[in-house]
Design goal:
single chain; 41% helix; binds 1,4-dihydronicotinamide adenine dinucleotide; transferase; 6-stranded antiparallel beta sheet; 833 residues; binds ligand LTNE7NMQ; NAD; alpha/beta; 20% strand
Length: 833
């Protein structure tokens, strides 16, 4: 006889709930049975257990007809599944199902007559789910060529008579299994999970996750080395994938980690199941029936093989926090002991308890449905002290969630608690209570239920993700915003894989519509999706509630690709919420000096970044260069610049003989102008840019200080639409053609330049001048092409040869790339925090 140890495989209800899944299970068992001895444990098919509970309930109400109709549903599922796999034996298998369910029908009849369903009767009713599935699975396996035999777990697993959650007599169970296993090698044993029997043969059930427990007990009893739980996920994930889209299956865990996770409520594991496995050194694998080649999660004595130790985040929801505090300090009180004993006595599970060092207060976390019972038990225990006002009235907080980080040797890691709490604090999650397990494998805290998702996502990112998550709320989906979305879409994978930055667009707004999803908006078709949102009145809408959601996400950034006036109020709200801002919009920086200073001070006060590199010459590194000059102690003596990509382009077109009206229209079409090109042609846009630069030098100037000569005279119809304005430009074509002719004959080029001369501070001459000039060939800026800009810095150190920054100064794609670079600067600066 072979001495190869057994493997135990357990299949849950969903794995055997439908013909395709059942077929996969039969194939899997067939394949593994060829490799070595195998024992199979199976749950009831699909929702059968719920249906049995329903049938028992109806029978108890005297509704036999309804109850038998539910049995019909159960029979139908079993027959359909069996017939789909063995069509040739449809009738025989249907008869088999009928004969298996006949005693159930009789039992329900009895219950309906007495209108009483005792705990033993209920266990008996529930047992039919597993009995049917195990019997059918054994028959279907044999028919498929894998010799299998139904083994009644009630003859093997011995329990006490606590019906509903019976306690197993491990020693007697082991004895029976050892005696029985000798005959198991020739034919795969198929055992019903979840059910067992008292020593006198009355059917019992094992409670929650009972089938996993059966598998662990069987493995222990027959000396198996591994239990595989086949389910519908790829393994135990680092966090609940419904809450965290980045959660991933963990390859290896130690038994200790598994037990810890089971203890804090991870649905897939139960402490009862872990104990026989740990005692007997049996590995537990969690695998997906639909992906049988995926290794899933292996839980054993060794744990991680590759040094990777991901932190699993477990949540237990629907809890209540009870705070009990003594008014007067006394070492006689033994508050903690009494409260815990009272709760134990009342049968209330305590998920977490923390006591103050002096024993004056205790906080306990209990299941929410047990809150009344828990409260009653504690108040009863402390009746006299409460009456004498020695104890504060109980403080109750509900619903709350218990969030636990589990990782081997966590206690030896540096600053684990600090990282945990600061990650939660950074997104505004209040920790209501906390505890670090003595095992050094876990640390737990209690948060409000409303904070569950954000708390899990944040801690998961802080502990498990190699990449930095960045959450973008984009305002504006026009020339720049639209290009930015396209660039994020194109760069997303590369940024994550190569640079460790995971950009997620969580919000998008235009002037009248907003879309927001904290989990991230799919970028494909996003603008079309926004266009379908019901528009609202821009005058009355507020984006502050969106900021309240944004602030709770990792590295939140408000990205302003609008030309909106008054948007600084939103920036201020963002800064106050710890949200960074990246803006292409010049208007907030051209506010009166005191307002602009107040805005920047607000960002500094809240330790957030405000980057606006693209406000001066699109993606050209102008502001950064200037800041570096100033930071390194250089003195800027003069800045001369062609700061308008659109007006520069128009000048070049005019010099090439294109009429003014046509060149302005082309500049707009190419995305060089402001949404309203009058902003460019009036010189206001250049004046704002020059002002932004002058202020970077610390000069407290305002727009009214700029000596401005427009490129095109003021529109006589300022309220007219952009189209009307563009149309009206035709009237100026001849005058501009004349001007160009004069330039040509003088050998000069038409340009629109800005000049910032700090030496004029304190004199009658303007520090900033903006206006059209005719410059000679060979002079800086004369040879600009298309929408090129240039900025020339003459400084103490760059005196003979000014430092020149030159390149494309306008356009959606280049500007968007500058905005993206600002976003990446923030995320890089925050890495690891
Ligand atoms: N086009 C370029 O080459 C450059 C543009 N910029 C700046 O970028 C900003 C955007 O320019 P474009 O994309 O060309 O403009 P655009 O007119 O093409 O797009 C503006 C977008 O902002 C939206 N919007 C307006 N008010 C809003 C509000 N209060 N909230 C949310 N969305 C709002 C509009 O619905 C539109 O989607 C402007 O401030 C411009 O000065 C900066 C550097 C270069
Ligand atoms: N309209 C602007 C765009 C960049 O700020 C320009 O023409 O330069």
């Amino acid at each position: 006889m072979s001495s190869t140890p057994f493997q135990v495989m357990k299949f849950g209800g969903s794995s055997v709930g439908s013909p395709p899944r059942l077929r996969q299970v039969i194939e899997l068992i067939g394949r593994h049975a060829k490799q070595g001895p195998l024992a199979v444990v199976v749950s009831a098919m699909g929702d059968t257990t719920d249906w049995l509970i329903e049938a028992a309930g109806l029978a108890t109400q005297g509704d036999l007809e309804g109850s038998l109709a539910v049995v019909e549903r159960i029979a139908h599922l079993a027959k359909t599944n069996a017939a789909a796999l063995e069509p040739a034996r449809t009738t025989a298998l249907a008869e088999r199902v009928e004969s298996l369910l006949a005693p159930l029908r009789l039992l329900l009849q009895g219950i309906s007559l007495t209108r009483e369903c005792s705990a033993p009767s209920r266990d008996r009713v529930l047992s039919f789910g597993e009995l049917v599935s195990a019997t059918l699975l054994a028959e279907l396996l044999t028919a498929s060529g894998t010799e299998a035999t139904f083994r009644d777990a009630r003859q093997l697993l011995v329990t006490d008579d606590r019906f509903g959650a019976a306690r197993v007599d491990v020693a007697r169970t082991r004895e029976r299994l050892q005696a029985s296993v000798a005959g198991w090698r020739a034919s795969v044993p198929v055992l019903p999970g979840f059910i067992a029997a008292t020593p006198d043969g009355r059917t019992t059930t094992l409670g929650r996750n009972g089938s996993d427990y059966t598998a662990a007990l069987v493995a222990q009893g027959i000396g198996a080395t591994e239990v595989t739980v086949w389910t519908d996920v790829l393994g135990l994930h680092t966090a609940d994938p419904d809450l965290v889209s980045d959660a991933y299956p963990v390859a290896h865990l130690t038994h200790g980690e598994g037990l810890e996770l089971a203890a804090v409520g991870v649905r897939m594991l139960h402490p009862r199941t872990m104990i026989p496995l740990i005692e007997s050194g049996i590995s537990l694998r969690i695998r997906n029936t639909m992906h049988p080649d995926h290794p899933g999660t292996l839980i054993d004595a060794i744990g991680s093989r590759d040094g990777q130790r991901p932190t699993c985040i477990a949540t237990r929801e629907e809890l209540a926090l009870l705070g009990i505090e003594v008014r007067k300090l006394s070492d006689q009180f033994q508050l903690g002991e009494r409260v815990l004993a009272a709760l134990r006595e009342a049968g209330v599970t305590v998920w977490l308890s923390t006591q103050s060092a002096n024993g004056q207060s205790i906080a306990v976390v209990v299941p929410r449905p047990d809150l009344l019972r828990a409260r009653g038990a504690v108040e009863n225990e402390l009746t006299q002290e409460l009456a004498r006002h020695e104890v504060e009235p109980l403080a109750i907080r509900e619903p709350v969630t218990l969030l636990t980080l589990v990782a081997e040797a966590m206690g030896q890691g540096v600053n684990v608690a600090g990282r945990f709490f600061s990650a939660l604090g950074a997104v505004g999650v209040n920790v209501r209570a906390s505890a670090q397990g003595a095992s050094s494998r876990s640390i737990s805290c209690v948060v409000d239920a409303a904070d569950t998702a954000i708390a899990v996502r944040t801690t998961h990112a802080a502990f498990n993700l190699a990449h930095q998550q960045v959450s973008l709320f984009l305002l504006g989906r026009g020339t720049v915003g639209g290009q930015l979305l396209a660039q994020v879409r194109a760069q997303q994978a590369l940024l994550k894989d190569k640079h460790g930055i995971a950009l997620r667009v969580v919000g998008l707004a235009d002037s009248r519509r907003v879309l927001f999803d904290a989990a991230g908006l799919p970028l494909e078709g996003l603008e079309e999706r926004l266009a379908r949102v019901e528009p609202v009145n821009p005058e009355t809408r507020t984006l502050v509630p969106v900021l309240d959601e944004l602030r709770r996400l990792p590295v939140p950034i408000l990205v302003d690709c609008t030309a909106a006036s008054g948007i600084e109020a939103l920036y201020t709200e963002a800064f106050r919420r710890g949200i960074h801002v990246v803006g292409a919009n010049k208007k907030p920086l051209a506010l009166p000096w005191d307002d602009r200073e107040a805005l920047l001070a607000e960002a500094r006060r809240h330790h957030v970044a405000y980057h606006y590199e693209t406000t001066v010459a699109s993606s050209l590194p102008v502001i950064d260069t200037l800041a570096n000059l100033v930071r390194t102690g250089d003195t800027v003596r003069l800045i001369t610049a062609s700061l308008s990509g659109s007006v520069g382009f128009i000048c070049n077109e005019l010099m090439a003989g294109v009429p003014l009206s046509v060149s302005v229209r082309t500049a707009k079409e190419r995305g060089f102008t402001e949404p309203d090109p009058r902003e460019d042609l009036s010189g206001t846009d250049v004046a704002r840019k020059a002002l932004i630069l002058a202020r970077e030098l610390g000069l407290p100037l305002s727009l009214s200080d700029v000596a401005l000569e427009p490129f095109v005279p003021e529109d006589p119809r300022p309220g007219a639409s952009v189209d009307t304005f563009l149309h009206g430009l035709k009237a100026l074509d001849a005058a501009y053609a004349d001007r160009v002719t004069r330039c040509r004959s003088a050998g000069t080029v038409l340009r629109y330049l800005a000049r910032i001369d700090p030496s004029k501070v304190g004199t009658d001459s303007p520090v900033i001048r903006v206006g059209p000039v005719a410059i000679e060939a060979g002079q800086p800026g004369a040879d600009l092409r298309g929408a090129e800009s240039f900025v020339s810095f003459t400084t103490t150190r760059h005196s003979d040869f000014p430092l020149v920054v030159r390149g494309a100064g306008a356009g959606g794609a280049v500007t968007a790339s500058g905005v993206l670079a600002d976003i990446l600067r923030i995320s890089q600066a925050l890495r690891g925090r």
